């Protein structure tokens, strides 16, 4: 990869340093015309060397705009970004009364007014330059005429106490665009892309994009973060705190974090995002399935999250956020706390054909304000799921409730949930009427069947029964395993040759019925082999059992029936059975 590159999609409307060439400033038509003497000066710019200032030594609505900016066509989904300041915050109204406003329109008399700030909003009452974003197509706070364009831009203040000296109002660079902060490049050799690098590019005096600002050891962000723009990025950073800023006149998807390009590498450790935004709390999506690792990170008060199978979200906290779509990623040790999803919705979604065992281990879920579920097991989830070491707090212990722990979306098959070492009752609500079995801390009943030569016996019937009432605990045949899933060092007998390359994995001839020990080479092609094992999960209490094994199928080697007694306990029940051939049933004459 190349050196890190930080760019944006913003186009300048006015910056008083060359755009437009000779900027003219004036008051808009009434009522935002109570100010005095708007001027271009160099007293206190935030960007470049010049800005607009306005004397306001009376009370009322003071405004100023750049009146000769070049026109442009508006694109849906874009925003205006403008720098505005009032140097005496205590002298203006609250935001709801238009303390600070953004003005935009097609002339000085045809314009919209948006109440973007006030005496106690954003940085105020402490003061300072603020960059505001507005979607000018939204319903404004005030409107004069019928503006059809938004290139006459500026701002104003609703002054309650006059400021007798100086020019307390100012505005500086105005730009328009989606508000995309674009990140590409970065590597160990060229230097990784980082949040510090982003802020350095944003905060340059000639730039001041207003998208990702450094603020006293933390960062303030708004708009779209686009990782992997036009090329992969290797973005590695740790121990940073980022606040998602509040903007009032924006769409719900204004604040977003997106990861693009499958070759990108994202590695964050102890990164914290806290949203103070209520209109657009901040969404996050892994668009392309890149290598992404979040370790010990925190996301607070945000919107939805979408991950993919290469996402590793470890020991990370999601606090008061909305739906987290897992995409088959790994979430071990992660906490989903006080989810902000609606009633009967789910805080976390698992909708891939992969067992959750090893993927969601040791997660923690606490219920939010609404009566919601912890996990939605989607229609693509397996019919048997293992939850290991999860902690559920605040959810209903009863089934079929809006706040039962699990929501079972699959309706076509019986579902088994193995809850191992979990805290809290693993309750469920179903989308259908299929049977759901929750096995709490199940053990495995495992029987391995071999002949006197220690060769696995395929298709042997294994039954296990309670002695007390003859309840059937298992009725399984010794299993067939796909050639691609065979385990090194295990003895197998080939049960279906298929197209498999058996000789490459330890067989001599690769023919039906051959017994061999699997080597280290991965199996390829099709075909199956048996290791002579039959197994079944069991979650009942300890009990005395009878184990029966038989293999007397027509056309195959027949064995004498086997039976023995045993007892289940806290650990897996395992039994090795050696069958003896039946000379009578195997007789040919």
SSE order and pairing:
Layout: E1 5-8, E2 11-14, E3 25-26, E4 36-41, E5 51-55, E6 60-66, E7 79-86, E8 100-105, E9 111-117, E10 130-134, E11 142-144, E12 152-159, E13 169-177, E14 180-184, H1 195-203, E15 212-215, E16 218-221, E17 224-227, E18 234-244, E19 256-259, E20 265-275, E21 283-286, E22 291-295, E23 298-300, E24 305-306, E25 311-314, E26 317-319, E27 324-325, E28 335-337, E29 346-350, E30 364-366, E31 373-377, E32 384-388, E33 391-393, E34 406-408, E35 415-420, E36 428-430, E37 436-440, E38 443-450, E39 461-466, E40 472-477, E41 481-482, E42 491-496, E43 515-517, E44 528-530, E45 533-538, E46 544-550, E47 562-567, E48 573-578
Parallel strand pairs: 14-17, 16-18, 17-19, 18-20, 19-21, 20-22, 20-23, 21-24, 22-25, 23-26, 24-27, 26-28, 27-29, 28-30, 29-31, 30-33, 31-34, 32-35, 34-36, 35-37, 38-48
Antiparallel strand pairs: 1-14, 2-13, 3-6, 4-5, 5-13, 6-12, 7-10, 7-13, 8-9, 8-12, 9-11, 15-16, 38-45, 39-40, 39-46, 41-44, 42-43, 42-44, 46-47
Mean pLDDT: 96
Low-confidence stretches: none
For the record, give the distance between the C-alpha atoms at the N and C termini, rounded to a whole number.
76 Å
**Radius of gyration of CA atoms, rounded to a whole number:** 34 Å
Strand arrangement in the largest pleated sheet: 1-14-17-19-21-24-27-29-31-34-36
Question: What is the β-strand count?
Answer: 48
Helix content: under 10%
The overall number of domains is 3
Structural class: mainly beta
Strand fraction equals 35-45%
Tertiary shape = elongated
- The number of distinct helices, counting runs of at least 4 residues, comes to 1
Profile the largest sheet: 11 strands, mixed
């Amino acid at each position: 990869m190349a050196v890190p590159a930080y760019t944006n999609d913003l186009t300048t409307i006015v910056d008083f340093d060359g755009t437009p060439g000779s900027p003219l400033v004036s008051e808009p038509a009434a009522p935002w015309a109570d100010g005095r003497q708007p001027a271009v000066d160099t007293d206190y710019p935030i960007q470049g060397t010049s800005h607009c200032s306005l004397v306001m030594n009376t009370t009322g609505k003071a405004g100023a705009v750049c009146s000769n900016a070049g026109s442009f066509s508006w694109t849906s989904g874009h925003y205006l970004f403008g720098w505005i300041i009032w140097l005496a915050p205590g002298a203006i109204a609250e935001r709801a009364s238009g303390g600070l406003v953004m003005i935009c329109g097609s002339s000085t008399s045809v314009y919209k007014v948006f109440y973007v700030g006030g005496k106690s909003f954003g940085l105020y009452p402490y003061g300072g330059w603020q960059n505001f974003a507005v979607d000018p197509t939204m319903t404004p706070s005030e409107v004069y005429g019928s503006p059809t364009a938004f290139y006459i831009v500026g701002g104003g203040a609703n002054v309650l106490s006059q400021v007798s000296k100086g020019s307390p109002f100012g505005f500086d660079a105005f730009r328009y665009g989606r508000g995309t902060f674009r990140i590409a490049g970065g590597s160990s050799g060229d230097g990784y892309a980082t949040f510090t690098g982003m802020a350095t590019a944003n905060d340059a005096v000639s730039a001041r994009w207003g998208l990702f600002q450094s603020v006293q050891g933390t960062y303030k962000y708004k708009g779209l973060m686009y990782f992997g723009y036009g090329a992969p990025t290797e973005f590695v950073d740790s121990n940073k705190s980022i606040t998602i800023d509040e903007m009032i006149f924006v769409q719900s998807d204004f604040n977003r974090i997106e990861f693009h390009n499958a070759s990108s590498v994202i590695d964050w450790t102890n990164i914290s995002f806290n949203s103070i935004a209520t209109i657009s709390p901040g969404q996050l999506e892994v668009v392309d399935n890149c290598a992404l690792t979040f370790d010990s990170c925190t996301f607070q008060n945000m919107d939805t999250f979408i991950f993919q199978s290469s996402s590793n979200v470890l020991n990370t906290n999601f606090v008061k956020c909305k739906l987290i779509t897992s995409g088959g990623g790994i979430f071990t040790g992660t906490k989903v706390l006080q989810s902000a999803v609606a009633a009967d919705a789910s805080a976390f979604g698992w909708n891939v054909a992969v067992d959750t065992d090893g993927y969601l281990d040791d997660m923690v879920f606490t219920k939010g304000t609404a009566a919601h579920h912890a996990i939605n097991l989607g229609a693509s989830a397996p019919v048997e799921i293992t939850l290991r070491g999860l902690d559920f707090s605040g959810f209903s212990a009863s089934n079929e409730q809006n706040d039962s722990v699990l929501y079972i979306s699959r309706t076509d098959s019986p579902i088994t949930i193995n809850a191992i070492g979990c805290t809290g009752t693993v309750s469920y609500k179903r989308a259908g009427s299929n049977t759901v079995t929750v096995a709490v801390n199940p053990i495995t009943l495992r029987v391995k069947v071999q002949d006197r030569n220690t060769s696995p016996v395929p298709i042997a019937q294994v039954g296990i029964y309670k002695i007390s009432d003859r309840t059937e605990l298992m009725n399984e045949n010794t299993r067939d395993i796909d050639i691609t899933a065979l385990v090194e060092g295990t003895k197998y007998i080939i049960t279906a040759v298929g197209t498999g390359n058996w000789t490459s994995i330890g067989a001599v001839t690769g023919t039906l019925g051959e017994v061999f020990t699997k080597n280290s080479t991965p199996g390829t092609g099709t075909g199956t082999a048996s290791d002579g094992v039959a197994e079944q999960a069991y979650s009942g209490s300890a009990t005395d059992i009878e184990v029966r094994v038989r293999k007397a199928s027509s056309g195959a080697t027949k064995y004498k029936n086997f039976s023995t007694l045993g007892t289940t306990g806290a650990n897996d029940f395992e039994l090795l059975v050696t069958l003896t051939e039946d000379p009578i049933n195997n007789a040919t004459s």
